[in-house]
Amino acid sequence: MLKIIKVEARLFVRDRLNSLFAVLFPTLLLLVLGAVPALRTPAEEFGGLRFIDSYLSSLVVFTLGFIGLQRVPTVVATYREKGVLRRLSTTPMHPARLLAGQMVVNFVAAILSVLLTVVVAHLVFGVDLPHHPLGLAGAVVLGGAGTFALGLVIAALAPNARAAGGWATAVFMLLMFFGGVYLPRFMLPPAIQAIGSYAPPGVEALQQAWLGTAPDWRHLAIMGLVGLVAGTVAARTFRWE
């Protein structure tokens, strides 16, 4: 398992363009938004906060969603398309280990991206650090697990990289909509906000932890359940070719 993780980490680093984009884009987006004076002004619709203060949880949602749903499925499907998985099928390695290696390496990249965004937001724009760090960590881990597991299901079933990219993009856009990435959540209907609270990556739990309250355990439990079920489906439906 450790060897698989080392190899996947090396491949991640070698793919410089996509890897740097995945890790740095949320921070660059924050810097662009923060350069707009109106978005640094407290507003009533954001509960007296600035837009960039309330939008950070959505940036975390974007980070987990982009890496878990855009990168992971495409990489694994490319392995299948190029015959890498077929060659691996002649070895004693269980497919769950390959999926776990992808999960570990990309999740570490997502954590680094989130930390970079938090640090830049605090140093450049004076955004408060998370008021409930343990709750935020739990929300990131469980929300990320649910999101990455959905990506692994796509990776397990997609016949090629093109199909994986199309399926993953559809799921990614849907979750980003529920997560308030495209539109501020206060502009969404209550039913959409409720779905976004429970759907991974869990924008509501992230927001609660950032503002200083413990995330709702029901939100965390649902995201953990999604991760468990989707991860099991991915391992059992995985095809080498």
Structural shape: globular
Distance between the termini: 22 Å
Structural class, by secondary structure, is mainly alpha
The helix fraction, in percent, is over 70%
How many H/I helical runs? 10
The gyration radius over C-alpha positions equals 18 Å
Q: What count of structural domains?
A: 1
What's the mean pLDDT score?
85
Strand content: under 5%
> Which H/E pattern describes the elements?
HHHHHHHHHH
**Strand element count:** 0
Which stretches are poorly predicted, pLDDT < 50 over at least 5 residues?
A: none
Largest sheet: none
Structural summary, described in words:
The model has no long low-confidence stretch (mean pLDDT 85). Helix 3 packs parallel to helix 6, helix 3 runs antiparallel to helix 7 and helix 5 (95-125) packs across helix 6 (133-157). The protein is 75% helix and 0% strand. It is mainly alpha-helical and 241 residues long. It is globular. It has helices at residues 2-14, 16-34, 51-81, 84-88, 95-125, 133-157, 161-178, 190-198, 203-211, 217-237. The longest helix is centred in the first third of the chain and has 31 residues, at 51-81. It comes from Lentzea xinjiangensis. It holds the Pfam family ABC2_membrane. The chain crosses the membrane at residues 20-39, 59-79, 99-124, 136-157, 164-183, 220-238. Belongs to the ABC-2 integral membrane protein family.
In short:
With 241 residues, the chain is mostly helical. The protein is 75% helix and 0% strand.
